[in-house]
Amino acid sequence: MVSHTSPLLWPLTLCRRSWPLAPGQAAVRILGRPGVDCYCQHESGAAVLQLQFLINEGALVTACADDTLHLWNLRQRRPAVLHSLKFNRERITFCHLPFQSKWLYVGTERGNTHIVNIESFVLSGYVIMWNKAIELSTKTHPGPVVHLSDSPKDEGKLLIGFESGMVAQWDLRGKKADFRICYDEAIHSAGWHHEGKQFMCSHSDGSLSMWNLRNTTKPFQVTFPHGKIQKDGRKESCKPILKVEYKTSRNSEPFVIFSGGLSYDKAGRRPTLTIMHGKAITVLEMDYPIVEFMALCETPYNNEVQEPYAVVVLLEKDLIVVDLTQSNFPVFENPYPMDIHESPVTCTAYFADCPPNIIPILYSIGAKHKKTGYSQKEWPVAGGTWTLGSNTYPEIILTGHADGSIKFWDASAITLQMLYKLKTSKAFEKPKPVEGRAAELLEDDPFAVQMVSWCPQSRIICVVGISAHIILYRFSKYDANTQIVSLEVRLQCEAEDVISPADNENNPCFSESGSQSPQTHQQHPASPGSRTPEGSKDSIPCLKVKERMVRVPPGYQAELVIQLLWVDGEPPQQITSLDINSAYGLLAFGNCNGLAVVDYLQKTILLCMSTLDLYGGADPYQRLTRSPRRNRQSTSEFCMRGLSNFYSDSKKRIRTSYQSLTELSDNQQSIDMERSKSPTSVGYASRRAMLQQFHGVTMYSHDEHHTTAPYSWTDKESRENSFSRSRSSSVSSIDRDTKEAITTLQFGESYGRKSDALPTPCLWVGTSLGMVLLIPMSIPTDHEERMEEPVTIGPSGTVLMLKGSVLHFSFLDCMGALIQSPYEVWRDLNGPEDPDRPRKRKLVHFSPSSSQDTCAEGHLAVVCSERQAKVILMPSQSCLFVHNITESSFVLRADVVSVCNSVCLACFCANGHIMTLSLPSLRPLMDVNYLPLTDMRIARTFCFTNGGQALYLSSPTEIQRITYSQEMCDNLQEMLGELFTPIETPEAQNRGFLKGFFGGNSNNFDREELFGEAAAGKASRSLAQHIPGQAGMEGMKVAASGVVGDLARARIALDERGQRLGELEDRTALMMTSAESFSKHAHELMLKCKDKKWYQF
After folding, report:
1. Partner residues linked to 750 by β-bridges
2. Which of helix, strand or coil describes residue 107?
3. Mean pLDDT, residues 302-322
4. Lowest mean pLDDT among 483-492, 505-514, 681-690, 772-781
5. Low complexity compositional bias: what residue ranges (predicted)?
6. Cα gap 498→624, rounded to integer Å
7. Which stretch of DSSP H or E encloses residue 936?
8. How far apart are CA 39 and CA 28, in angstroms?
9. Gap between the Cα atoms of 934 and 1017, Å rounded
10. pLDDT confidence of 27, banded at 50, 70, 90?
């Protein structure tokens, strides 16, 4: 299981070369070098408040909101909790772990400071009580502990900061306070100078105070960095400085970095991070509130010159790293996905085993549109290792967003990498203010993406928007001047029909469809942005397409826009299904009113019919027209609700798609009754209301219908007869108001009629009443004829039936292999003229008639609905296999996917079960109760793909990838890589004799002797409870990984020893050479001077 997460209120800490992020949902995300991204979660569900790395030890301590400390082992591919310590009587407020120490200082809300042994994870008997740390004359409680740090000058001195403004330096050996400071303003944080002679505090009034240990009676400097002096001579009030860091530099002035402290004079100011370097003050404005920040330094020792080179800033919705080595402080380009929910995600699509060249081309185009001004240095985090695994293939995730944008993500590895961003709103004029029921939609998110259909081979993408519009894009590596073609479709039923009361009870209810086909229009008389009264709105779309010639950059370029029109003051119903085929050059879409087929090559509409007209003479039901016609108000209200149910009404929170059901549910009594009777127990008023949310329209299936009275299901009816209707004594069948929606569409080579001898292009249509219709087509094969001759299309009258709404179509050959849909090979229409490159379309077909044997046998059609699956033999249309998937629930998503060199039918049900069925026999292979449907977001975004993988949006900020394939699971273990890679710890600088003699005796401080059980005794058992971590195999893995780490450290030490011995040998050889040279020169001098007299010198 892999989770791709954006940060949301995550505290931050440092581990040499990797960072953990802890969101408020009890999870920890550890980031290393690009590609190393680990996500783990606490079982307790408590929010993570603070993190402390055991630097270069492969361990992490987390402090949670339930006052529990957890020790994580990072030496294994999947981090696990080794120990937990639960505080019972005090609440944890702050933690501090000195470098290379195994004793953790824990401050509490009561003002006490406890000490925890990291190795055994038990409390020491040594406790610093708040009443001993403060002055005896103090009459008030100092408040919770907000800061703990050991003195750089002496590790035996601990600086304790209390919220009330009191600071004390505690002598750990003498068990007494060296000095106490009482300041008028509350303290939020503190930071030492590396020499340990002075420290800085940040306060609630926006001030910074500097204190010298020689004189602690008052601060020797108090500054208001953002406080201006007013005319009356007083300082203006400022916001609190929540955190400050004081870092020294060897070749320049110290860095003072803090968050907050702005004045209150201006409202609506953005959050800021201030960097003070000497007299220069730089204010960095952030897009989101600052949660935490931390300076990255060259040395881990607090008594050396820090030399900060970057600062990490964690925002509510982002993570940035600022380069401190350059004067303009640029930011590093973040290799991790932090902007998944930059705009709320409304739909997802998952494509595995894509063409290998699609990712590089998307990345190259997307890189041209990225922001500039990043730091030229490499990303400063370089911890951990990762691999691609043994059987990797290109994977791409598409996310549609509320602002109309679509993002392409590379999901081939563990982490996501954004490749390209497409903005669909650029195809339209900016909407003008409107009035009436559509005002809220058009003012909020008129371009929100509802559905995406992408063909990776032809690089064509179709986008369905919330305003009942479809945009077709083609990919090009060149910019071009283009004008978008607009088609307008009047897909609205006029007359109404109902089911005859004489229908058999087991027959599905049929929709009230128009007897007249919908009409198409090329132009509209009024602008969609004009203030036209809703009662007189007719034949106008919701949005206005740009009519002028526009210059489009390389990438996806809009070619065609299709919009549904208002009819008699009623807005268009949302589009519920879409399919595109690049080989045919056709696009089909439908909603609860009917079906439309568009030839996007010739820019014409081929078919536009109501659902009833699709049946023709093959209608199996008796229908009676009703007169007079009912009031349109009810239908119009439902249409508008279908448009506006995309998001919640609240704008103060992050809006999530398809989450609120209040607009589509019946009265509260009906809701309570249905919640108690629903067999799926997912908390929705009814299955009808859930389907309305899922498809975005007022849609009905034949086993549940909307009535004007409360629902009157019985559990027996829902179990025994999936086709049963809701019954009410006050409502007859003639008063039912139902609509049949087109729920799924699929182009493919098939047999449109039983008498067909050869397969032809066909369109398979599935409806919400479980009906399947086949529409054969005649498409010219020659390139010139295809661009000029019309495509003939017409319903054949073929009808198949299933229980529940039809969800998916797929085709198999008679050997059980999956038949892919035909496609057109991508060609760049805007490329330069090349005589060697053919300009004609190159098509790839996967027809079942590839051999004479299969031609005689036909092919298999797999049809899956909400309740059952069938395998149909074509062209005889005989049912070979049938399987009732569920009786107590219903299927939300179904796909035919390839797993382990075979194909199967994967289903996700509303009760949380994930099931797979073999093909073509439809035998159950797997049934796992994975995830109960607690949010409509999951239903809208859940999707399967090849390789036994699936994806869904688990929260507004998290994309969750799962696998149900053992092969993929094993490969995932290889892709996880290693979080802990042992490196050589830098040696501490030699302080020299004088500094060591006069600077204190920090090197003689033995924490074990002071905090151990022999000296401090045992802590009270009632204060904290030790909880052991995972045992069994996990413990063995931990032990094994610990041994591996010890061996690695021993190997490094051995290498260092060998290197030093080699250096010593080199020095010895050099000294020997020098000695021989000296001896030679001395002997020569002796021979030269041997026979000389004394007076000859």
Report:
1. 760
2. strand
3. 90
4. 505-514
5. 723-733
6. 6
7. helix 936-941
8. 6
9. 50
10. confident
